[in-house]
What we know:
The radius of gyration is 13 Å and the shape is globular. The model has no long low-confidence stretch (mean pLDDT about 85). By secondary structure, the chain is mostly helical.
Amino acid sequence: VVTVLIENGADxxxxxxxxxxxxxxxxxxxxxxxxxxxxENGADxxxxxxxxxxxxxxxxxxxxxxxxxxxxENGADxxxxxSQxxxxxxxxxxxxxxANYAEVRTNSNQ
Length: 110
């Protein structure tokens, strides 16, 4: 479905709705293939908006490790602030998710 929408001119960065945009929705739901497809077609990895603030924050909060890695590989800003959750680093702390916290931290300046 996503491929058909993109092929027919859908704006991969269109904002709106609960999650903010398509990338943020795919990231929080753990749809690695859709995240990659959207990024390959120009989705802004650091777009702000929606419930989780940005795609990295949504993926981190939901524990979607594979998606977090894809987003980091594509330049997601781990220090970006957004929504009520702060930044991606803060999302791993309440869960005591030290492995993911360490990986995200190595991609930040903190």
